[in-house]
What we know:
6-stranded parallel sheet; globular; 15 helices; Rossmann fold; binds nicotinamide-adenine-dinucleotide; alpha/beta
Amino acid sequence: MTNLFDQIKAEGHEQLVVCSDASSGLQALIAIHNTSLGPALGGCRMWPYASFNEALSDVLRLSRAMTYKAAVSDLPLGGGKSVIWGDPRKNKSRALLDAFAKQIDSLNGRYIVAEDVGISLGDIEVIRESTPHVSGFSLEKGGSGDPSPATAYGVFCGMKACLEEVYGNASFTGKRVAIQGMGKVGSALAKLLHEAGASLYVSDMDPERVAHAIRLYGADPIHGHEVYRAECDIFAPCALGGIINSRSIKSFACRIIAGAANNQLKEMSVVDELSSRDILYAPDYVLNAGGLINIAEELSGYDQPRAYEKIAKIYDRMKMVFALSKTESISTAKAAESLAERRLKKGKHV
Length: 350
Ligand code: NAD
């Protein structure tokens, strides 16, 4: 087994907190990847991991991704994430959330928690009773509420930059967009695209969600992996990570891949094949940062119009990514990484 210190050092993490509370059964990890730009903000995921190592890899990978997302989005925030090891349907209790909140509080604001898979807005509000280091709470309580509409809006703005890059204008009229996943983000994105004049193909494991999109937006349904083969202008992954991989890449019949799903690239090597097939890839963490930008606004007192103005800048950021990709002859994925790393190097006082 790899030495734990080596594992943490490999990706440059600052701190790993191993949390345990015998009476509530809490077993959790809090990973703080980088705080050079500000406190580490990132969601808490509750998941029945098969092993400690699986939970550890997840929290390390996710917290690092948050550093890059915050940095490339020009936010005064660092990257962190937490995971609670357990089944949210069976193991979540008031006592467990209280014990977890105490652990967060003990970090004195170095880590700010938000919701993620298995942790609801209601859970966040319970945690907030024991620590102020919480974000993403309800609109009624002065928070920013569900981040999904903000994420969808950011994706929509970033897609405009993609259209300009490929077609020379940002019009959605007559453009065909295939959306994989009609959940919270996918459905909000479908609405924006429909209103802007795009025609939609939609896929989801839940037939009700597909039926909803057919009813509301006249979308065409696509089944399972057929979505990768859809002949379209934009393929928008809004469900799963790892979907751009050595197998799926051969199927793509789109000009642009731009969607909300986190960690879309299964491995970095696939980006070269995308370029050789003339498919423009919008790096996921640049495009899907709307939710984070929205949540970050809570820290200075939430104001929705101001938040949405900042989210719209995803368009400009995507343009920067494309410009750097061309001037340095690197992939868009590498260009996004490079922009984030430059910002991290400069630090917060610039
Ligand atoms: P969600 O759970 O509301 O929706 C996901 C949808 O994908 C569900 O309807 C599910 O049935 C569907 N799905 C799952 N597997 C599928 C498959 N194989 N084919 C087709 N559909 C499938 O999640 P969400 O909040 O809409 O988030 C979507 C993606 O965007 C996730 O990867 C998430 O990590 C990422 N993301 C979300 C936000 C946010 O603000 N919610 C922010 C950044 C990134």
